[in-house]
Predict the 3D structure of the following.
Amino acid sequence: MRTGTSFLLIAALTACGRHDDRSTTPRGGDSTNARSASTANGGLVYVSNEDSRNLSVIDVATDSVVSTIEVGTRPRGVKVSPDGRTVYVALSGSPKCPPTMPDAECAKKIADRKLDGIAVVDVATRKTVKVLPAGLDPETFDLSADGSTLFVSNEDADSLTIVDIASGRAKSNVKVGREPEGVTVAPDGKTVWVTSEGDNSVAVVDVATGKSLAQIGTDGKRPRAIGFLPDGSKAYVTNETSGNVAVIDPDSHILLRTIVLPAGSRPMGVAVSRDGHRVFISNGRGGTVSVIDAARDSVLSTAPVGTRPWGIALSPDSRWLYTANGPGNDVSVVDVQTMKVVHRILVGGSPWGVAIGAKP
């Protein structure tokens, strides 16, 4: 009798369709239908997993991991080539030092500079084919619009390395601020902007000459990332420690205003909608994403998405937001119309960066 009862109980629970909180099962009829329509052409999401030394590949049509690619030590920044055939991943031989670790203790750890570089991943074969040199401790970078050049921040060298991809050689090293972090090429392709955690500023570098044009204060501590409106009219810089976002005029290099985020926010990543109406900010240890109205530079909403969201990226139609949730070892898929998490996808250890590209 007990055996039969247990069988019926298990069958009943199965029929109820219980879901793990991090399953890839779609939730909500409206979101599911909209998602099917917007992902009809397909695409791939690439997630760098800092602790497990690999790259998770997610198919947007199913929101499931279709491949895991070994890339190297401490993968963090990630970008996709314009044609979708190549993925670049920043690797670092510097030891991982959590924020709670004193600087003196971190300094005792030994770095292996042979492990620094930018991994080049072939999407068709799903293999790392080579590693490009990129200076000391590369963390984040950006690509030129034509896919020919990498602009890499080197935290341990206070510099920006400009790398020619075809030759695999560094063309130049530009001194920027202390502890450079975020790197973003301006929409017109003429300048590249680099945040400086140590100086609480942003360096503006001329792409053609490799010379620094300006150093702009961010009115906040520990600036992390930079996002531009598509028309290049404004730049948004996240200040992690201060919990705010600096808004800068790219033409005059003048700080226009500072947007204060809700209490507990630790702003990290930036993603801008294709139409330029919305700016999305991941709030790290705050566990949320804030949405900024770009016309008014005011916070529209803030929603929970996961454990310490860092890297974020929008689908090409700006309908879905993907967040890398470090300690949660997962990626959240957020419906930007409702700011609700519709999927959570298990990936590797400590996901850091997210990039989206078309299927080649």
Summary: The CA atoms of residues 47 and 354 lie 5 Å apart. The radius of gyration is 21 Å. The chain has a mean pLDDT of 89. Helices lie at 2-16, 29-38, 103-107.
